[in-house]
Amino acid sequence: MKSIPTLSVVSLGLTAILLGQFQAEAGNKGGGSDGGGDGGAAAIGADVIVGAITPPVKYGAATINGVSMMAYSIGTVSCNIGDQQLEWYASPDPRHPFIPMNAYRLKGGRFEQIGMSWGKHGFCALQQSLCGSCTPAGGGCPSLLGVGCSDPYDASLNGSQGGLGPRHEVNAATGAFPGTFGAGMPSPNPTVGRRLQIAASDLNPTQNPGAIYYFEAQYIHPQDAAAGNKHNNASYTRFLVGTLTGGSYNITTTGQTITQKPALDVWRSWDADVLSRNVDVPNDGRFIVAESVRSLGAAGWHYEYAIFNLNSDRSGRSFSVPVGAGANVTNIGFKDVDYHSGEPFSPTDWTATVANGAVTWTGGDHAVDPNSNALRFATLYNFWFDSDQPPATVTGTLGLFKPGAAGAPNSMSVATRGPAASANPADLDGDGSVGAADLSVLLGNWGNSGTGDIDGDGSVGAADLSALLGAWGG
Question: Residue 23: what pLDDT?
Answer without folding.
Answer: 35
